[in-house]
Amino acid sequence: MQSAELKGYGYQYCGIGLRNNPPVLKEHIYSFLTKKNNRYIVRVEEHNNDLYIVKFHLKNHTNSASKYIILTNFQDAPRKIIFTYILIGLSIVAKNPKASFGFIGSPTIKELSRDEKERLSNTKRFRIYTKLAFTLFNPDNYQHLQDQSCSSYLLLSKTKLKENKLLLQEIQSSLESHYLDIDSMFSSILPSV
């Protein structure tokens, strides 16, 4: 996919946030403004093995524990917003052709109210992001791996895989230690039953 084909918003690189918070080596911060003047923050965690984990939220939600699950309902060109995240990913690939990516399709507040075993499974965001990842990141260049049970997705660079046959195992081990229990990431924001 050529970046010129994607119609996203202009974004800016804002610098490095967290540094050396294992397994995160550093956190790259980007931001962009939508046509309705809503500012979004994109946090890209850089891990070992050229892995980048992408997270994003509305700037106004920065201090909220729920920042990654809130749906804005602004009707502010959601496709263009998502394409902006993809353009940021493509800019990372331009600098680092061995880059791999990961994301979690965070549950909505409504999904969090589901049964404990189902709340993180196959979320709305996961389904949308999965379709886009498979469409926009060529399977000739990336191995696509997904886990519907926790709505997580990995795009592994085949160039990096050729270089390191244990790449998947190393990434899984690192992520499991960092995101020990994905369900616990959302436990503080579960709706009252």
Q: What distinguishing features does this structure have?
A:
single chain; 193 residues; alpha+beta; seven-stranded mixed β-sheet; 6 helices; 7 strands; disordered C terminus
Largest sheet: 7 strands, mixed
Count up the domains: 1
Structural class: alpha+beta
By DSSP, the count of extended strands is: 7
How widely separated are the two ends? Answer: 44 Å
Q: Helix count, per DSSP?
A: 6
- Give the CA-based shape: globular
What string, H for helix and E for strand, traces the elements in order?
EEEEHEHHEEHHH
- Low-pLDDT stretches are 181-193
Give the radius of gyration: 16 Å
Oligomer: single chain
**Helical content band:** 25-40%
Q: What average pLDDT do the residues reach?
A: 85
How are the strands ordered across the major sheet?
Answer: 1-2-3-4-5-7-6
Strand content: 25-35%
Q: Any chance you could write out the topology, listing elements then pairs?
A:
Blueprint: E1 11-21, E2 24-33, E3 39-47, E4 51-58, H1 78-95, E5 100-104, H2 109-112, H3 124-136, E6 142-147, E7 152-157, H4 158-163, H5 167-178, H6 182-185
Parallel strand pairs: 4-5
Antiparallel strand pairs: 1-2, 2-3, 3-4, 5-7, 6-7
Can you give me a brief rundown of this structure?
By secondary structure, this protein is an alpha+beta fold. The chain is 30% helix and 28% strand. The protein has helices spanning 78-95, 109-112, 124-136, 158-163, 167-178, 182-185; strands at residues 11-21, 24-33, 39-47, 51-58, 100-104, 142-147, 152-157.
Description of the structure:
- The chain has 193 residues and is of the alpha+beta class.
- The chain has one domain.
- It contains 6 helices and 7 strands, in the order ββββαβααββααα.
- It has helices at residues 78-95, 109-112, 124-136, 158-163, 167-178, 182-185, and strands at residues 11-21, 24-33, 39-47, 51-58, 100-104, 142-147, 152-157.
- A 7-stranded mixed β-sheet has the order 1-2-3-4-5-7-6, sandwiched between helices.
- Strand 6 (142-147) and strand 7 (152-157) form a beta hairpin.
